[in-house]
Amino acid sequence: MSTAASAPALRPALPGLPPVQAVFQPIVQLHDAALLGYEALVRGPEGSPYASPDALFGLAHDSVGTIALELHAARAALASWQEQGLPGRLFLNFSPLSLRHLLAERGRAMGALLGQRAPASRVVIEVTEQTPIGDAAGFAQAMEVLRAMGLQYALDDFGTGHANLDLLAHLSPHYVKIDKSLIRGIATCSRRLEILRAVLRMVSAFSGHVIAEGVEEEDEFAVLRDLGVSCAQGFYLGRPQARPVPEVSPHALRALASRQIAVFPQMVSSGWSGLTAGALMRDAPTMRPATVNDEVLGCFHAHPDLHAVAVVDEAGKPLAIINRQHFIDRYAAPFHRELYGRKACVVQANREPICFDRHVSVEEMAQVLARASQRALADGFIVTEQGRYAGIGTGAELVRAITDIRMQAARHANPLTLLPGNIPLNQHIDRLIASGNAFHACYVDLNHFKPYNDQYGYWKGDEMLKGAAAILAQACDPARDFLGHVGGDDFLVLYQSADWAERVRAAIDSFNAIASAMYPPQARAAGGIHAEDRLGRKTFFPTVSMAVGVVRVGASGMASLRRQGSSLIGSAAAAAKREAKRAPDGLAIIELNAADALRSPVH
């Protein structure tokens, strides 16, 4: 007989429904590794068609049946919880339909349900999705009765269905339970990570606590711990049981006590921000189609910084654009003023201007201008709102914005390998130092890469860099080790894995073999190529090989590092790399001494 089947089952008062029993799943506090309490779940008879909650509630065909079944499940949970003397709080599930019933007449039915079975201070009411909320403001008023009774409440399955932002704002719950769909895979999905970060910020504004549901893996648990999530629940922490163990599982305690930090999944993107055409536009006077060229010239003289003007019709719709330089160059031609000064400006204007709605992203603008003529870039662009003129922008400003965005993106993620760049690397180093856990910083460099890149072209060079990135990724435990691309042929690996040395040596051997195979047969047989060095002299360069300089950071050295942080790690790693490039096996290890931050080689 299973553990769940050993608990007594209670028969509901509503005729025709099978008996039910309560099972309990632990909820663990991550800041102190203590039990917050248990969520009570209902089960039908084991082995029957109604063993699962969904099948059981499928028997309740109307509101009367739903309320009756939820009340009986709560009575079963309260009786078993009281009989076992389980520690912490008891989380009871109720649909909004049942809660409206229980909270009527100032919560008289809720008070009768709890009775002497459980003090209000130890009960948390979970608002489930069994029935729709309806009027959120009205429901929030009903829930105020719970507060008056001394009960806390939780919003269940946040992130799906009825558990939305509007309800969060109205209820201000004590706990928000994040649906398992947002937690599952959070150790590898940067989007889920960012969503959870946003939820944490929102819930903290209401002075509430987040409970992560559906935690099944240690990696997910570690990420939640390091993000500062209040509590967690799931199979990793304990399956629902009729008679649960009244303590936190040993493996969860070990994970919470570990000083190793989780490796957060990195957001990989092209770097395009929320910048739009509206942010690049400037106010500028406009011309009508019949405006004469002499008036346009006067406008340019009155506005020395104006690169172009737009020609619009009476409704404000753009018809053409007049480029300042092109226009004034024409005026410099002999007799141009006499011939064209009194003619309509639209005649010689560019009647195919590039127009962008003010909400169009910079990415879309760049794609359009990349396909346009060189004159279009010089003329700039017109910004519209609902088809009407709003302002004007220059091609130079757009190019500058694109350049800034891409430079910023390269600091977060290398565009070739899509590995994290300098900013995420420094952030992870700071987290490692704050944790006080020992780690190894491995600076990876490719010997003789530049001659290879010069000889065979950037395309072949890029392939070699991507190959190095792939080999280094294979040499990492994604849950413990952080791989970043510093730039060019330089990488940095931050190891927490105990077997880091074996991983590094395997990466060196694997890369060296693959790099050699990327040379033509003749160069491979010669062991390298003749190419120009940095001074333009013809020199023989061996085939590209990997060098790894390792900085061993002991737990006792964190005091010095907390003062100097990633800058000290960076300088030590650069010194280790220089040693590694001279080492026969391409590997050198430097010890970072804590007391005085001196670096000494390890033999």
TrEMBL record:
Origin superkingdom: Bacteria
All copies of domain EAL, residue ranges: 3-254
Domain GGDEF, chain residue ranges per copy: 437-592
Protein name: Diguanylate cyclase
Organism phylogeny: Bacteria, Pseudomonadati, Pseudomonadota, Betaproteobacteria, Burkholderiales
